[in-house]
């Protein structure tokens, strides 16, 4: 007979689908309920790889499933096509980044189509098209109007290899660039920022809405990134300076334990304070220290184990609660852009301050007795009858951080703290905040780890920032009607990174006539590509709309995205930015929801030899695997390997096994001899039960992402069907057709080519993807028998196969007549007998 030939099936069905467009979302007229399923769009840096193959297989199961369940599904595709890799490749090869980018897109597109992702190709978008990036510029102007886009001169993370600024999020934990791998350095530049910090509270609090539908790991990472700290701002007078200096502290309770103040060496405050010192040696010392500090990364500076360094600024502050005069130092463990860039140092209770105090011989004063119990009164200690003094138990550590080197960070009772004495830590925090507030030199305050989003890039291949400057540097936003500000041709431009945007050298482009006729210049920087991806999900409803970024009415009908699928590497950056922009658009009245992605699935990675595959490290090539086993077998292997969020070690799975299984399934359809009109009821009852159990269980399993379990059950169904065919009943049995159709419907989620072919062989028109799932017949779900257990004095003595609807009296009768039960009762007297039909008979016997 014919042979299962996956490549032939691909060649047959791919063009048919192009024609039929079975995956088109109906944006307007459709009455069906809607679902929006979105895979994180891909960066066109080369052809699709195994990682894409996993993510797209998983997302596609979800999209195909909801379609099958009767939903009008929007499952679009786009390309995140601006960015450095295109520019770097273009520089290397001397071509326009456009050429490289669009050639890669074409290649990925062919592969994605072959991979049978059920996307609506009519909605494809590329962020590097002027039709798209025009709306990035529109978005920028909206943020600017709202005061959410601003320019600031500041120290920025500088990638010395790519010669560009990096967002904090792009600096890896070891202080290197996530782009080039170079060690990131600091540089002072005037840059554009988006004021995401205005949204810190909402970004944090709204994560609660996503609990249960986003991976808890991602929620935790977002919370940690936003990093809200609650405490107080305290104002310190400075000798010889009219203005006070404010510090942020999470521990205002320790205010009586402050013995010095530390400011960030790279803050304006440090420079100003040291300039006020009369001692030239102090100023020289500071200057030298600052140079040294600027060579270290933020990550190094936050490393608590690092040897403390610092210099005395020859200035003094006054503690507002006790009037003490404390020296002011500059040290790099204090960061310029956190809190107020200055701290009140409490060495007894803060490890960093203690390390610093020990290094520079500064005083340490304990203000919290961590040996005292927190609840109830200070414990009554045993009194030594000879000395008459309270005796500390031996196992209590002495309150001597200056000598032990261990800061006292635990709970306790306040001491040496005037009005706070005797209070617990939390009560002291409350009390001192009130005291400060009443005296006007402090107040409750919050701080965030989150920084504003730096969006300027000194590179060519991105969205031009729609801002002009006059000769005085005065800023003029480009009028909305003038958008898009198009990227110029690359001809004659040197794209080589030089620390300034290459656009600045495009004379014809950068020099403009201002609206009032004067001469001006364009902002030559381009936007971070995370701007592009922060709102792309809103563009898919009307990707070709020339009048607006997106249609608010359509956006509200479809968004938020019901299921977002993508890698955990986007746990912070992309997701945080998309959440922020969604909230901004909500505030501007463009959308009526505040979270972009209702549910998130992070697929695991595909590993080879235990390590992540990548272009540089090599690994398994997707194209080769597809050539060997076929698309369907690869897709099936991806979903069968385990829970979607787990990594897949490609050596541990069997695409050959998947192909074999698909051939088995396909052969069932070949062997069915009955007509589509055959009466199901006449079929083999046992097989019908297996089929209907599967029909009943599969949807719940898919919805809880147990795709691998669905495949396992499907294998059982295929085996049961084969058994009936081979048992002599043959392919004419109605139950065989019913089971095989069910196999095809289920396979359409995982192995679309095989499923489509089976569906045609079974006598139906394409496409199986448009056919609904079948409802299970409840009468076939009733179990035909259950096991009843008979216990005598708690011990199981008999198991009986009985009907699930057995009468309790009948069950008791069966139990009483069982030989094993009679033996167990022996001469005893039955004192109690409980029947719980159909599962249990429990007999209590005495004597
Ligand atoms: C006094 C104190 C006493 C502090 C104590 C802690 C413990 P989080 O939780 O990360 O918000 N701090 C404030 N601004 C800083 C800056 N710019 N750079 C480095 N450290 C800074 O940390 C807040 C605490 O970190 C603040 O509370 C302050 O030290 C320090 F027993 O103030 B604390």
Q: Major sheet: size, sense and barrel closure?
A: 7 strands, mixed
Bound molecules: ligand ANZ
What percentage of the residues does DSSP assign to strands (E)?
Answer: 15-25%
Poorly predicted segments:
374-379
Summarize the structure.
With 847 residues, the protein is of the alpha+beta class.
Question: Can you offer a commentary on this structure?
Answer:
- The chain is of the alpha+beta class and 847 residues long.
- Helices cover 35% and strands 18% of the residues.
- It contains 26 helices and 32 strands.
- Mean pLDDT is 92; it is low at 374-379.
- Residues 223-436 form the Leucyl-tRNA synthetase editing domain.
- ATP binds at residue 615.
- Belongs to the class-I aminoacyl-tRNA synthetase family.
Features:
32 strands, alpha+beta, leucine-tRNA ligase activity, four-stranded parallel β-sheet, seven-stranded mixed β-sheet, Leu_tRNA-synth_edit, tRNAsynth_Ia_anticodon-bd, binds ligand ANZ
């Amino acid at each position: 007979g014919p042979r299962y030939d996956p490549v032939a099936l691909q060649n047959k069905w791919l063009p048919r689908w192009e024609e039929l467009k079975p995956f088109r979302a109906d944006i307007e007229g459709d009455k069906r309920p809607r679902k929006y399923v979105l895979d994180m769009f891909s960066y066109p840096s080369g052809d699709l790889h195994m990682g894409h193959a996993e993510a797209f297989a998983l997302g596609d199961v979800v999209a195909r499933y909801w379609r099958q369940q009767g939903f009008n599904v929007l499952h679009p595709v786009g390309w995140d096509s601006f960015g450095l890799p295109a520019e770097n490749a273009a520089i290397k090869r001397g071509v326009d980044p456009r050429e490289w980018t669009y050639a890669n897109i074409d290649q990925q597109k062919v592969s994605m189509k072959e991979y049978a992702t059920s996307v609506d190709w009519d909605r494809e978008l590329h962020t590097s098209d002027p039709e798209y990036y025009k709306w990035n510029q529109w978005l920028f102007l909206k943020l600017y109007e709202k005061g959410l886009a601003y320019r600031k001169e500041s120290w920025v993370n500088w990638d010395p290899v790519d010669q560009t600024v990096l967002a904090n999020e792009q600096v890896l934990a070891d202080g290197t660039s996530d782009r080039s791998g170079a060690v990131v350095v600091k540089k002072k530049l005037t840059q554009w920022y988006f004021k995401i910090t205005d949204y810190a509270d909402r970004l944090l609090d709204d994560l609660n809405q996503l609990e249960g539908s986003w991976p808890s790991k991602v929620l935790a990472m977002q919370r940690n990134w936003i990093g809200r700290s609650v405490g107080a701002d305290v104002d310190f007078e400075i000798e010889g300076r009219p203005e006070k200096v404010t510090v942020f502290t999470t521990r205002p309770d320790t205010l009586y334990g402050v013995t010095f103040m530390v400011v960030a060496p790279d803050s304006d405050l440090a420079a100003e304070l040291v300039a006020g010192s009369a001692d030239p040696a102090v100023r020289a010392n500071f200057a030298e220290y600052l140079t040294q500090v600027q060579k270290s990364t933020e990550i190094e500076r936050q490393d608590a184990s690092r040897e403390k360094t610092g210099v005395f600024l020859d200035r003094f502050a006054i503690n507002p609660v006790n009037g003490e005069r404390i020296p002011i130092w500059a040290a790099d463990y204090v960061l310029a852009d956190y809190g107020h860039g200055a701290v009140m140092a409490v060495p007894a209770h803060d490890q960093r301050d203690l390390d610093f105090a020990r290094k520079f011989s500064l005083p340490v004063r304990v203000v919290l007795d961590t040996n005292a119990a927190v609840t109830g009164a200070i414990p009554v200690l045993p009194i030594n009858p000879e000395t008459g003094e309270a005796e500390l138990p031996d196992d209590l550590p002495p309150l001597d951080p200056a000598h032990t080197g261990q800061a006292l960070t635990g709970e306790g009772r306040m001491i040496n703290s005037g009005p706070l004495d005797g209070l617990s830590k939390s009560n002291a925090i409350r009390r001192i905040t009130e005291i400060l507030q009443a005296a006007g030199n402090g107040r409750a305050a919050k701080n965030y780890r989150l920084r504003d989003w730096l969006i300027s890039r000194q590179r060519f291949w991105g969205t031009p920032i729609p801002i002009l400057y006059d000769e005085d540097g005065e800023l003029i936003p480009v009028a909305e009607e003038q958008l898009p500000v198009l990227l110029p041709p690359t001809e004659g431009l040197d794209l080589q990174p030089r620390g300034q945007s290459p656009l600045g050298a495009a004379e014809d482009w950068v020099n403009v006539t201002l609206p009032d006729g004067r001469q001006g210049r364009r902002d030559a920087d381009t936007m971070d590509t995370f701007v592009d991806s922060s709102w792309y999900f809103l563009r898919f409803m009307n990707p070709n709309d020339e009048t607006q970024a997106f249609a608010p009415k359509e956006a509200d009908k479809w968004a938020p995205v019901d299921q977002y699928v993508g890698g955990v590497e986007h746990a912070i950056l992309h997701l945080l930015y998309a959440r922020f922009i969604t909230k901004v658009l909500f505030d501007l009245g463009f959308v009526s929801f505040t979270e972009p992605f209702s549910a998130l699935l992070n697929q695991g990675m595909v590993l080879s030899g235990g390590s992540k595959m990548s272009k540089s490290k090599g690994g398994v090539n997707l194209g080769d695997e597809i050539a060997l086993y076929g698309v369907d077998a690869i897709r099936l292997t991806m979903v069968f390997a385990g829970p979607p969020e787990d990594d897949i070690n490609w050596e541990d799975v069997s695409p050959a096994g998947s192909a074999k299984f698909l051939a088995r399934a396909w052969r069932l359809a070949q062997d069915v001899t009955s007509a589509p009109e055959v009466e199901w009821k006449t079929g083999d009852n046992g097989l019908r039960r297996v089929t209907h159990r599967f029909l009943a269980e599969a949807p719940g399993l898919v919805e809880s992402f147990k795709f691998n379990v669905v495949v396992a059950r499907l294998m059982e169904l295929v085996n049961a069907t084969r058994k009936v065919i081979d048992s002599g009943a043959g392919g004419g049995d109605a139950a065989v057709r019913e089971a095989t159709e069910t196999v095809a419907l289920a396979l359409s989620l995982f192995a679309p080519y095989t499923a489509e072919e089976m569906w045609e062989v079974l006598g139906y028109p394409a496409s199986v993807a448009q056919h609904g799932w079948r409802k299970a017949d409840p009468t076939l779900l009733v179990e035909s028998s259950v096991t009843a257990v008979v216990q005598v004095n708690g011990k199981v003595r008999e198991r009986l196969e009985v009907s699930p609807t057995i009468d309790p009296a009948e069950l008791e009768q069966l139990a009483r007549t069982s030989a094993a039960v009679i033996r167990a009762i022996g001469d005893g007297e039955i004192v109690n007998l409980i029947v719980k039909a159909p599962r249990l008979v429990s007999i209590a016997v005495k004597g």
